[in-house]
Amino acid sequence: MKKIHINRASVLEAFKFFLIRERHRHIQDIVQIDLDLGKLSDIDLVADGLDDWIEIQRGGQNDSK
Question: Residue 53 belongs to what domain range?
Answer without folding.
Answer: 8-57
